[in-house]
Each structure stands twice: as C-alpha cells, then as structure tokens.
Amino acid sequence: MNSKTLLKTYAYFFSVLFLAIILYGCGKENKVADEKQKSDETTANSETKTNGTEKTSPGKELFYLKSSVNNIACADCHSDGTNSNKPLTKFFSNIQGANKRTSTYSGKFTGEEVLKNAGGATICWESYERMKTPLTAEQINSLNEYYGSVATSDTPTDIKYETIALPTRDKTKLKEEQKNVMAITGDPGRGAMEFNNACGSCHGNEAFVKKVPDIFDDFEGNEKSIIYNVRLGDGAMPFFVKDRLTDRMLANIAAFIMQQNKK
C-alpha cells in the first residue's frame, strides 16, 4: 500500500470516528434533555397536586376518612364547600373556617376549647364514627388547618341554630316539641322524600352506613319516640335541629314512618 492510499485510509477512518463521536454526543445530549423534560414534567405535576385541587392534606384525609366500623366520614354530614351534593350536609354545620369560631356544637365548646376539639370533631369521631382511638393532638391540628384552608370571604364567624340536645339534653322542652309536632297533620307523601334526604343515608334501601337497625323491621315505636330520636339523637344517631329540619318536615317524616309500619 503506497503512502497516498494509506493517507486516504487514515482520513476515512478518522472521519468515521469523528462522525461517531458527534452522533454519540448528540444522542447523549438528547437523552439528557429528555430526562430533564421528564423531570420538569414530574415537578410540574407535583406542584399541581400541591397547589391545585388534587392536593390532599392530612386534615382533608381525616375529613374524608371512612370509619371501618360503620362507613361514616365527617364529609358525609358536614360540607367543606365542595361536597354539598351529599344530602346530609344541608342539615349539619359546614366546617369552613370552623377553627375561627368563638363557639361550636351549640355552645358546648367555647374559646380555646373550639380548637382543642377541632370544632367538635372529637365528639363526632368517637360517638358517630365509632373510631376506636381518640383523635391525637396532631390530627386535631391537621383538621383545624384544613378548616382554615377551605374558608372563604363569605364564611360566617359563627353558626347559630336552635336545639334542645345541647349543651345538655332538655327533656322538659322535648315534651313541648312532641306536642307541637304531633299537632301537625303530617303528609306521608312528602315525608317519603324528606325521609330519604334526612334519614336515607342510614336507613332505607340505599343506605351506605353499616350496622344501622332497619326502623321498618318490627318497629315498636310511635310518633313520640320518632320525635325523641330526631330532636335529641340516640347513640350513634345525630340530633337534627329545628332550623334545618322543621317541625313540619318532622311531622311528615313521622307520618311516613307510621304509614310504612302498618304495611
């Protein structure tokens, strides 16, 4: 092989080698760019979940946590501003800004006790959701933080309602309530609809709450006992206040229950 041919061979070899290096470098740069883009997208998605509606704070998780005992969550009865489609939320106080209220649970908790009990959640947690262990201080703080995070400029400082169940169960006034409600001629037709809204989540064919007695199965009560349970509550059953469930509505519900019991 003469020197001229040898030079051409070397030139060809180094040209190929140089091209390979260039291609390798470009490929590596593209790979780094792709990885950076994926990293940026992951970070953006993470920020969206943190700053957007997908974020799940510890307090929100507790608020929507279903009890393993009876399948009830705080969010089934109380609104955070996004779950008002649940029928029971119209009967019970919302939790928006509850950490700023001067009193909750119809005066049962006032001042610093509001924060210490997460606006009354300590009672709901044990009495209604039947949780096996009390809320911890950390969980209470998380709930208070969530209450504040969902507050709006229109959120009322305090929510007042009329009840004979709190701060103590007033059985003297209950007799007056029973007399007033029983003096109203209830409409069982409307009562069926109102029963479904106020009672259907726990009682009825489409109830999602577990371990609740079927009130139409060998019901031995009467109108007085229905009014008693609705106005004062009983065990895991919450009380309904007059401002949200009126005497007229209660009379209709009682008429519906008594009608169904005769079938």
Terminal CA distance reads 113 Å
Helix content: 40-55%
Order of helices and strands: HHEEHHHHHHH
**Radius of gyration based on Cα positions:** 32 Å
* Biggest sheet character: 2 strands, antiparallel
State the low-pLDDT regions, or none. 36-53
Number of helices: 9
Based on secondary structure, the structural category is: mainly alpha
Compute the number of strand runs. Answer: 2
- The order of strands across the largest sheet is 1-2
- Measured by DSSP, the beta-strand proportion falls in under 5%
The 3D shape can be described as globular
List the helices and strands and how they pair.
Blueprint: H1 3-51, H2 58-64, E1 103-104, E2 109-110, H3 112-116, H4 121-128, H5 137-149, H6 171-182, H7 188-198, H8 223-232, H9 247-262
Antiparallel strand pairs: 1-2
Helix pairs in contact: 2-5, 6-8, 6-9, 7-9, 8-9
In short:
The chain has helices at 3-51, 58-64, 112-116, 121-128, 137-149, 171-182, 188-198, 223-232, 247-262; strands spanning 103-104, 109-110.
Report what the structure shows.
The chain has helices at 3-51, 58-64, 112-116, 121-128, 137-149, 171-182, 188-198, 223-232, 247-262, and strands spanning 103-104, 109-110. The protein is mostly helical. Helix 2 packs across helix 5, helix 6 (171-182) packs across helix 8 and helix 6 (171-182) packs across helix 9 (247-262).
Keywords:
263 residues, mainly alpha, two-stranded antiparallel sheet, 9 helices, 2 strands, 50% helix
